[in-house]
Amino acid sequence: MSVRELVVLGTASQVPTRHRNHNGYLLRWDGHGILFDPGEGTQRQMLRAGVAAHDLDRICVTHFHGDHSLGLAGVIQRINLDQVPHPVTAHYPASGQRFFERLRYATAYRETVKLTEAPVDADGPLAVTEAYTLDAYRLSHPVESYGYRIVEPDGRRILPERLAAHGIKGPDVGRIQREGVLNGVTLESVSEVRRGQRFAFVMDTRLCEGVDALAEGADMLVIESTFLDEDVRLATDHGHLTAGQAATVARDAGVRHLVLTHFSQRYDDPAVFERQARAAGFDGELSIAQDLMRVPLPKR
To answer: Is 67 tagged catalytic?
Structure first.
């Protein structure tokens, strides 16, 4: 059975707290697993969340600050220790190549898995598979940072009333789906376009064009909201977003489910982030991320 969900492994900004691990997010996309920003402690959080190294197909790093990348060494070594039977691809800003290499070879271990390095140096598509297209867009942070976007190809939704009008039933339904036409009746005439799902991942950044491009039309947007609105100057100075800014982006982009995360340790009441997001006018589904929570993507 296909599963599409976000598994939250960590939600802390800069330093872990008693209740929040460094960043880490796994997107389960049917049979694929994409790990975003594995911070320190990610390997242990994976165990707690029931995520295995075998679940990983891609690793996407937004930038090379420690809370988003220090867990790479452990995750990569675990992939090799467990002898994951399929290739794994790692995406990260090309300007951080030296950091990736240092983390990949931080200590001695036996390499058993093909890990493909695919650094990012421009906006646009990184990978095209049958299940999705992976895109990256540049963000605005003191070090080079990219956000990621998963887009499912559009499909078609069969309309039973149109099938009945053309007398198509039983095995012929499958035939018209496979062949595109049956006795002069086209697939288009008995179906409608089913828009593919879209997932966006936006970490450390100020407001910029890349944020808007990533968020546009997303079914789920996972986005940092390091600061509350009253600390907007701090957010801008350090290259971050506030809860209200993140929610405004989601509202204007038509996001269906907004997931706020990456919270500064200065705040101890997560409910305030929700109140500020609602005050900004976002009225879709809203989750304030907590470690080890699972968030299903909205139904298509």
So the answer is: yes
